[in-house]
Amino acid sequence: MLSRTFIRAPLFSRGLATHAGPSTALPAVLHLKTGQSFSGRSFGAPRSVFGETVFSTSITSYTESMTDPSYRGQILVFTTPLIGNYGVPLNRAPVDGRDVGVLLESNGVQCTGVVVADVAEKFSHHSAVESLASWCRRFNVPGITGVDTRAITRLLRDQGTTLGRLAVGADVSAPMPSPEQYWNPSAENLVDQISTKAPYELNPTGDVKIAVLDFGAKANILRALVRRNAAVTVLPWNYNFNAVRDKFDGLFLSNGPGDPSKCMDAAVILRKTIAEWDKPIFGICMGHQIIGMAIGLDAYRMTFGNRGHNQPVLALASSGSIKAGRVYVTSQNHQYALKLQDPFPQGWEPSFINCNDSSVEGIKSTEESGKKVWGVQFHPESCGGPLDTIEMFTDFVTECRAHKALVAAEDEVMVNASAKATPFFETIRAQPAAVAAMA
């Protein structure tokens, strides 16, 4: 009979996770303008803030969400219970033909405050260099944990996005703010605050030149263009593009925060561009709304917007890699949308519609218009999120290259035609001299 040998495995403590460090342990409370309050404890910066309270259903990529410029002025509620478990990476990357200088979506935390059910006390990831609490503290952003984010989300979903105040420390005992004390970030031009103040270039040796109007561009949008070997020039949101448009092979309009009506200057400039320029134009999120306003559509404020990585959209028209009738899962972050109207402006058609709320998710120029213009409300570059529509960037850059090649071919034909016609023109120019000699 075989004897059995039992080997007792040693007990290992979880030594691979890093402790987040000492907590401020200050009390905190989230006040909503609609009258509700949620008490918890603070992490991050020990200060109080006002903002617009919104929720995101994204399960991963809290670092990318918090660095997205579209969250500027907002108190971000994560519906996922545990946040911070994989820490925060070093936010640096090279500036070359593959990257744009940052690993995340911008060079700092963009949201005004953070609300989570349970902030991780330990984090573990091979690229992590600090905890969520430490990162927030470094960028002076307060957070609150230990609150029922399900209840907060239900309130925001049912009554709509609400202004709020995140009070920390001694401010917790102060009375709830009166309605007129709440700060509304949408009343300000947030795009003007976040947009680049001067043009700059990325990947200048790329084989196709694309201008980007920066309404608050995510780094992954620029990265997606650079990695397709585009030479990218980033311009301020209200830059007079028509003065320099002939230098470029295409125009891209980025995402951005706030109310699109604050950017009518850009829509007016773009209206002239679309009317007079026949090169490809592509807009995402805020850029999509600017295109819509430029062609005569209205933008409206949604009840609670769409923020998350799981929004299904139905393609109504085929274009490049997009096939009509297919449902694509997309990443989104927006409070405003374009109104669906009948009839649609001449030369234009809706290209995507949201499967949940039937909002307009995309518009495009028709084949008959002779234009190459697209706009989508979602984020094809989706960092994080699904990559169902990432090839829309390839489609856009390919169209820019095709148009560049067509223009070059047309120029060559004109040069050749001019060369062949030279003797004829020289004969015409010589006729007056011959007549004068005969006289």
TrEMBL record:
InterPro entries: Anth_synth/Amidotransfase (IPR050472), CarbamoylP_synth_ssu (IPR006274), CarbamoylP_synth_ssu_N (IPR002474), CarbP_synth_ssu_N_sf (IPR036480), Class_I_gatase-like (IPR029062), CPSase_GATase1 (IPR035686), GATASE (IPR017926). It comes from Serpula lacrymans var. lacrymans (strain S7.3) (Dry rot fungus). SUPFAM superfamilies: Carbamoyl phosphate synthetase, small subunit N-terminal domain, Class I glutamine amidotransferase-like. GO terms for molecular function: ATP binding; carbamoyl-phosphate synthase (glutamine-hydrolyzing) activity. It catalyses: L-glutamine + H2O = L-glutamate + NH4(+); hydrogencarbonate + L-glutamine + 2 ATP + H2O = carbamoyl phosphate + L-glutamate + 2 ADP + phosphate + 2 H(+). Residues 26-167 form the Carbamoyl-phosphate synthase small subunit N-terminal domain. Its EC number is 6.3.5.5. One of its GO terms (biological process) is L-arginine biosynthetic process. It is an enzyme of class 6 (ligase). The lineage of its organism: Eukaryota, Fungi, Dikarya, Basidiomycota, Agaricomycotina. Pathway: Amino-acid biosynthesis; L-arginine biosynthesis; carbamoyl phosphate from bicarbonate: step 1/1. Belongs to the CarA family. One of its GO terms (cellular component) is cytoplasm. This is Carbamoyl phosphate synthase arginine-specific small chain. HAMAP family: CPSase_S_chain. Heterodimer composed of 2 chains; the small (or glutamine) chain promotes the hydrolysis of glutamine to ammonia, which is used by the large (or ammonia) chain to synthesize carbamoyl phosphate. Keywords: Amino-acid biosynthesis, Arginine biosynthesis, ATP-binding, Glutamine amidotransferase, Ligase, Nucleotide-binding. The keyword ATP-binding applies. It comes from the Eukaryota.
